[in-house]
Amino acid sequence: MSQVPEYDNAPKTDHAYDGIEEFDNPLPGWWKWLFISSIVFSPFYFLYYHNGVSGRSVEDLYGVALAENTRLQFEEIGDLTPDQATLVAYMEKPNWVRVGQSVFKANCISCHGREGEGQVGPNLTDDYFKNVKEIEDIAKVINNGAGGGAMPKWADRLHPNEVVLVSAYVATLRGKNIESSRGPEGKTIPPWPEPVEAAPETPEE
User: CA 20 to CA 14: how far, in whole Å?
Assistant: First the structure.
């Protein structure tokens, strides 16, 4: 004689469709209270973090943390000068190029595109340049703007080291030749200078 499974006697709801019944398994009490608590908590969360007060949103907190991290990183390298030797040297430092890339993505992609391919601003990945004849001119354009304000001045919005690092990153984009809807703009200029290898340290006698 076969035994009837115990779950056949479990309480069921009144729902039945084509002979298919539904067990009456209520949600656990802790789950209900957690759900109710989240509903009660949500208006206070919204009012605190999304009422427009500066410094409370996730974006603002991220910006503060990023600025603090950048400040700590800049303590390692001191104050950078936007000259040819510095820009060429920092083009060869991948970790600092990534910092420059983050500055670019935070401030420049709306005009120059996510990969520097050009949108409103010119394509930065080809060999044609406007207002740039030497590599250090990239930093000058970023600091002072160009094109009668078409390229805004960033000297009052970026840390001097950020200007150097984003300039080094922009210099690395040259030659990638990413497909763009913008044609060549400006003139071709000589290649960037080669980095100068640091002299090996002489052991003290």
Answer: 11
**What pLDDT does residue 204 have?**
52
| DSSP 8-state assignment for residue 197 | P
80 CA to centre of own chain: 22
> CA nearest 111: which of 165, 149, 70, 59?
149
Rounded-to-integer distance, Cα 191 and Cα 134, Å: 9
Query: Cα–Cα distance between 130 and 123 in angstroms, integer?
Result: 10
Token pair listed for 153? 């001045």
Per residue in 81-101, pLDDT (tens digit) is: 999 999 999 999 998 998 899
Distance CA 134, CA 126 (A): 15
Helix-helix angle 160-173:84-91, to 10 degrees: 60
Q: Tell me the per-residue pLDDT of 175-191, one tens digit each, with 9 for 90 and over.
A: 999 988 788 898 999 99
**Confidence (pTM):** 0.67
C-alpha closest to that of 139 among 200, 202, 83: 83
